[in-house]
Design a protein that fits this description.
Length: about 290
């Protein structure tokens, strides 16, 4: 399974003019934690380098972190190892009550289409936007005025970086909302089960073709499971003669070379499984963008 970092939705508690930078710094520190101890000792110099933010700005952000009510950090300890040098130790909660998944390439690779000077704030904005998405999706059902209020930034700041993300294809517009199209922000969760594998194959295929995927649905998971039963590892290890027909990535590549802008489960299930949804079933799968 790909390397990931879970991000608490309590990032919205980070307030002020510097909250976009602070959001990304929090996520960056957590990315570099020890997975077993949940402790990170990432230095301020390293944070400044990775985030492309001045060292003094990082120090100010860390001081603001210490004033939080421990929803993001269990504890932050500072040890002075020289008169002018200190080491911070960040202890994270073992589990967060409300969180989402990001793949670690989000922190290692630049956002396509975004200038270097805008990378950190754009990434911070994407993380804050994910915190207000519909559960198990990357869909935001608010207008920009509502978004600015919910994620705690000014309308002018939102407009500036929103425009950059839309122009770079990191966000897409919907009727009544927006879709986070960055491939490293996971819509639902990571798991090794076949249902998650199948959904993520469809999700990634939609992104690659510039389409907006359907929101994950248990009934759709079950329909797909009746036809596609192999993960990557199982496909590579089996010698079954029918393996190509029950391995979803190959079927997607062969059958769905083009997609509508917004992909519904009705479209997917008809194309892949020859399943015709009734009108009531199709309506059950749809989310009205209002």
């Amino acid at each position: 399974m790909e390397q990931y970092t879970t991000i608490s939705k309590q990032i919205l508690e980070l307030k002020g003019n510097n909250c976009l930078n602070a959001t990304y710094v929090y996520a960056l520190i957590k990315k570099y934690r020890n997975f077993e101890t949940n402790i990170s000792t990432l230095t301020e110099e390293s944070i400044a380098k990775f985030a492309n933010i001045a060292r003094q700005n990082i120090s100010n952000i860390i001081q603001d972190f210490k004033k939080l009510n421990n929803d993001l950090f269990n504890e932050i300890n500072t040890q002075y190892i020289a008169m002018d040098k200190r080491q911070n130790k960040y202890s994270f909660h073992a589990t967060d009550e409300h969180y989402f998944y990001t793949l670690n390439d989000f922190y290692l690779l630049p956002l396509d289409g975004i200038l270097e000077k805008d990378q950190t704030k754009c990434k911070g904005l994407l993380l804050r936007l994910k915190a207000i998405c519909i559960n198990n999706s990357n869909i935001i059902l608010y207008n920009k005025m509502q978004i600015a209020s919910k994620i705690g930034i000014s309308k002018n700041t939102l407009n500036k970086y929103f425009a950059l993300l839309l122009g770079a294809g990191q966000l897409k517009a919907l009727d009544g909302g927006y879709f986070i199209s960055n491939a490293f922000i996971i819509p639902d969760y990571l798991s090794k089960d076949i249902e998650t594998f199948n959904y993520h194959c469809i999700y990634k295929h939609c992104l690659e073709l510039g389409a907006i995927p359907p929101i994950r649905n248990q009934t759709a998971d079950n329909y797909l499971l009746g036809h596609f039963i192999l993960t990557d590892e199982e496909y590579n290890s089996t010698t079954a003669s029918n393996k190509d027909a029950v391995y979803l990535p190959l079927v997607l590549e062969n059958r769905l070379k083009h997609l509508p802008y917004i992909v519904t489960w009705g479209y997917i299930l008809k194309a892949l499984c020859n399943i015709e949804l009734t009108k009531s079933e199709e309506q059950h799968f749809l989310i009205t963008m209002t």
